[in-house]
Amino acid sequence: MTTMIGTIGAIMRYPVKSLLGENLDECAITPSGLHGDRTHALIDASTGKIASAKQPNLWRDLLRFSANTASSASPLSIVISDQAGNTFCHSDEDFDAKMSRLLGRDVRLVDVRPEGVELNRARPDEVMTHGVDASVTQDLLAIGAAAPTGGFFDFAPLHLMTSASLGAARDAEPQASITAERYRPNILIDTLPSTAFAENDWVGRKIRIGPSVIFEVIAPTPRCAVPMLIHGSLPFCREAVAVVNKLNQVEFPMLGPGTFPCLGAYATVLASGVVRRGDQVELE
């Protein structure tokens, strides 16, 4: 038995990990999540770790760049844009040199996830207290623990969020610049305002979209320091993390004992297909 819980309000894809992404009207869903999502990442040449804005003292400027796909062809052609409007393609021979120069640190773009690759995750409470330039405590995060088919996912190949949960955060901090883009979901589900943080109760249940697509929700999504950072034209917003810390603390054993600020849910793909904005979303 299924219950309709809402419709797809937005589909968001991030071709390069930690760069800004793109909004889509429709997208194919594969076992690896959205087609073309997080297929590439930048590797810090000096450490071998993934360059991630989760370590804001080094990598927050990644969020000043956007990655968009030039077409729906496979493999996708990815165009990188900066805030000045300059663009270049990920397949350019001098791509690594260009990005390294713009970031001020040597990086290389990869499309195959190295075995055991990790990234540094700054503790968000310490970033809120000491600022984005501070060298706060860093936890090592293994990439893609619930994404065995590849891709540069923090944990699982899909990140879902409801408009009700996002709305609750906005209502609690009405003067803050709180937007879905800060939390980087793949699918934003338009739901009734009364269902805020319903994602907490979806763990272990299935989501159906249209005639063929099925997800399994496997965990809540803990928030790092990234939502508070400058995202393109969006300003710094400490409240984007602080409000989740206040409203929704949930257990996430991968990060250790206790509870963590969570917004949204992680999911894996049980059945593939195409999803479109406006599609009905049902919960088993």
What is the H/E order? EEEEEHEEEHEEHEEHHEEEHEEEE
Mean pLDDT: 94
The profile of the biggest β sheet is: 7 strands, mixed, barrel
Our Rg estimate from Cα atoms comes to: 18 Å
Please identify the structural class as seen in this structure. Answer: alpha+beta
CATH homologous superfamily (4th level) name: PK beta-barrel domain-like
| Count of the domains | 1
Low-confidence stretches: none
CATH 2nd-level architecture:
Beta Barrel
CATH topology: M1 Pyruvate Kinase, Domain 3
Helix content: 10-25%
Number of continuous helical runs:
6
Portion of residues in beta strands equals 25-35%
What is the distance, rounded to the nearest whole angstrom, between the alpha carbons of the first and last residues?
6 Å
Sheet with most strands: strand arrangement: 1-13-12-17-15-14-19
Number of strands: 19
Name of the CATH class: Mainly Beta
CA-based shape = globular
